[in-house]
């Protein structure tokens, strides 16, 4: 029994010694490989995406809200009083210039025309009679059988008769105009709205309310307000040859939801008076509207130029990092491919690109992606930065 236990103990000890020997044999081979891997990892450079800064022309815009108004608006009002017999248009339709819209009962005006014609005929007859009398008295005066006083009276009577004819003719013209105004026409081409008076209604000349409203909608006005200081900066830049003339500058239009409108507007008018309450000026933008997508009263946004940078240095927004105090920095790639953090002064943000006012120069290479790996003095392995494809509608 004791002999069996001895054999078992020796067997266990032998197995343990063999295991220790195997571990000691493997250790010298694994040690150098692990150290080599660690050294290789330490020597590998950080992989980052970089961009070389190049100067380019940047226009900074203000997105300003504004209300749409019609290019021209005509309030249809009667020039004579009377009962409306007919409405000659379809509400909401397009009308042309001089198209008849309403018909006021013309019978009273036609009667006035006939009366005025009769008065003119009587005045012409009186003129003829006065002319004949004048000619007879003039002949008698030449033969010294009529006095000079009689000739003077004849001349005065003739002049009075001619004046009566002129007055009667003017009165007839007025009555004919009133008859013509019994048919109310549109002064402009455009879209007409609701008929504010119907058949049987009384149209009154000089009434405060219109009979209908016609608006020209193929082009519209968008009135926006811009701070006067920003407008002054733009005008100075334009005066220094950094852009085109202020009038006629194209303007991108955005809907109230931020979607771009398919047609550009154009600045047509800039007010010369600053609002003392707000310190802003009114800018009028003309916007094409060929398909009547826009209507008066809508709110839109206009990207009005605020300032122009002819040789701006820009970097993507994601390239800017901040230190512990919140100051902006860029990671610049040095000549030896090492990273260095450099403080910069940021300008406006335009299309997700920061304008850099100071801190870098043209031709320098900055890190856009991988700044967390590009600490101060880190060796860098650079690849060209590729901007992400934007799928959101701007």
Automatic annotation (TrEMBL):
| Gene Ontology annotations for the cellular component aspect, listed alphabetically | cell envelope; plasma membrane
Where does it live in the cell?
Cell envelope
Residues forming the Multidrug resistance protein MdtA-like barrel-sandwich hybrid domain are: 72-215
Q: Which keywords describe this protein according to UniProt?
A: Coiled coil, Signal
| UniProt domain Multidrug resistance protein MdtA-like beta-barrel: residue ranges | 223-304
User: Do you know which Gene3D superfamilies this protein is assigned to?
Assistant: 2.40.30.170, 2.40.420.20, 2.40.50.100, Helix hairpin bin
**InterPro entries, per database record:** MdtA-like_b-barrel (IPR058626), MdtA-like_BSH (IPR058625), MdtA-like_C (IPR058627), RND_pump_MFP (IPR006143)
Q: Does the keyword Electron transport apply?
A: no
GO BP terms? response to antibiotic
Q: What sections of the sequence does the record tag as coiled-coil? A: 151-178
Superkingdom of this protein's organism = Bacteria
Q: Where is the Multidrug resistance protein MdtA-like C-terminal permuted SH3 domain?
A: 311-373
Q: Where is the signal peptide?
A: 1-21
- UniProt cross-references to PROSITE patterns, sorted A to Z: PROKAR_LIPOPROTEIN
A Pfam family found in this protein is RND-MFP_C
One Gene Ontology molecular-function label: transmembrane transporter activity
Q: Into which family does the record put it?
A: Belongs to the membrane fusion protein (MFP) (TC 8.A.1) family.
NCBIfam families referenced in this protein's UniProt entry, alphabetically:
RND_mfp
Q: Please report the name of this protein according to its UniProt entry.
A: Membrane fusion protein, multidrug efflux system
What organism is this sequence from? Stappia indica
């Amino acid at each position: 029994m004791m002999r069996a236990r001895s054999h078992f103990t020796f067997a266990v000890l032998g197995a343990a010694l063999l295991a220790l020997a195997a571990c000691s044999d493997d250790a010298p081979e694994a040690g150098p490989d692990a150290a080599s891997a660690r050294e290789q990892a330490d020597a590998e450079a950080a992989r980052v995406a970089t961009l070389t800064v190049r100067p380019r022309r940047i226009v900074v815009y203000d997105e300003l809200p504004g209300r749409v108004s019609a290019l021209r608006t005509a309030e249809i009002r009667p020039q004579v009083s009377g009962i409306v017999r007919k409405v000659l248009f379809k509400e909401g339709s397009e009308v042309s210039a001089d198209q008849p819209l309403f018909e006021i009962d013309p019978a009273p005006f036609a009667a006035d025309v006939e009366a005025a014609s009769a008065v003119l005929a009587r005045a012409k007859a009186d003129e003829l009679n006065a002319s004949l009398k004048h000619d007879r008295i003039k002949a008698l005066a030449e033969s010294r059988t009529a006095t000079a006083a009689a000739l003077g009276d004849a001349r005065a009577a003739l002049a009075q008769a001619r004046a009566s004819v002129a007055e009667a003719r003017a009165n007839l013209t007025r009555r004919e105009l009133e008859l013509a105004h019994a048919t109310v026409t549109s002064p402009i081409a455009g879209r007409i709205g609701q008929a504010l008076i119907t058949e049987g209604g009384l149209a009154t000349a000089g009434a405060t309310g219109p009979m209908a409203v016609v608006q020209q909608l193929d082009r519209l006005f968008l009135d926006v307000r811009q701070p006067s200081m920003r407008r002054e900066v733009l005008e100075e830049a334009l005066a220094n040859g950094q852009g085109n003339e202020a009038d006629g500058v194209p303007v991108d239009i955005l809907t109230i939801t931020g979607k771009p409108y398919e047609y550009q507007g154009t600045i047509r008018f800039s007010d010369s008076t600053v609002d003392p309450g707000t310190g802003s000026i009114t800018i009028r933008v003309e916007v094409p509207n060929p398909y009547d997508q826009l209507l008066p009263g809508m709110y839109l946004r206009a990207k009005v130029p605020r300032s122009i940078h002819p040789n701006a240095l820009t970097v993507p927004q994601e390239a800017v990092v901040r230190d512990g105090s919140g100051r902006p920095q860029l990671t610049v790639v040095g000549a030896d491919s090492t990273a260095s953090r450099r403080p910069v002064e940021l300008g406006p943000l335009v299309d997700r690109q920061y304008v850099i006012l100071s801190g870098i120069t043209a031709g320098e290479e900055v890190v856009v992606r991988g700044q967390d790996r590009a600490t101060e003095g880190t060796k860098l392995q650079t690849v060209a930065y590729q901007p992400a494809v934007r799928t959101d509608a701007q």
